[in-house]
Design a protein that fits this description.
The chain has 207 residues and is mainly α. The chain contains ten helices and three strands.
Length: 207
């Protein structure tokens, strides 16, 4: 719908990273292998189907200050990141979108891949990803916007934005969350006393 609005052709090509053992083993540089596979495919399909050699991506300047092993793969493949090169931050991106009438995406919450909810070195499986996805879909339906359900084996650790603490204070909401997440397969449902922070699983890792 958005691409149609701005008159951009939208082509979908499905990849299957879930079969790549280097990704599923979930090392601390997992993102490198994932980006390498995805953008290698994008380059191949773009060249074969559209005759396109130059690929841009949406990496921004803020990504320079977090642990981002995927940046190495982008550099190796010659992917160009205009927002990163021109030092445009996430906050500035949202400002520019809103001031150019693109309200539907200006305030869209960040949505990193589900694997970022799993601690490094815990093997990634379809079952774990399904647990996380089902849990987060449920919280989204309850009205939460900025949050993560972090996977710790039997424990689901909820990170929510400080602005949404009032929602979790409602005992009926809490009861619904606990009941649902336990039905999904978690034994314990916990709330992190620190508010939601994108990339919190990377704490303690030096880029």
């Amino acid at each position: 719908m958005f691409c149609k609005k701005i008159n951009v052709e939208h082509y979908i090509h499905t990849t299957n990273e879930i079969t790549n053992k280097e990704i599923l083993n979930n090392p601390i540089n997992r993102c490198y292998f994932c980006k390498k596979e995805i953008f290698s495919t994008i380059k191949k399909v773009s060249k074969e189907k559209f005759g396109i050699d130059t690929i841009f991506d949406g990496t921004n300047y803020d990504d320079e200050f977090d642990y981002r092993p995927g940046l190495k793969a982008l550099n190796e493949l010659g992917i160009i990141s205009p927002l990163r090169i021109t030092k445009i931050t996430k906050k500035e991106i949202r400002f520019l979108l809103e001031n150019n009438g693109l309200y539907e995406i200006a305030n869209k919450p960040a949505n990193a891949c589900l694997a970022t909810r799993i601690p490094y070195k815990i093997e990634i499986t379809k079952e774990i990803l399904h647990k996380i996805e089902t849990s987060e879909n449920f919280l989204n339906d309850l009205g939460f916007k900025e949050f993560r359900v972090r996977y710790h084996n039997e424990i689901a650790r909820l990170e929510i934005s400080i602005d949404e603490y009032t929602i979790i204070c409602d005992s009926l909401i809490r009861d619904k969350i606990v009941k649902k997440l336990k039905s999904i397969g978690f034994k314990y449902v916990t709330l992190d006393l620190l508010p939601f922070k994108s990339g919190s699983m990377n704490e303690g890792i030096n880029g």
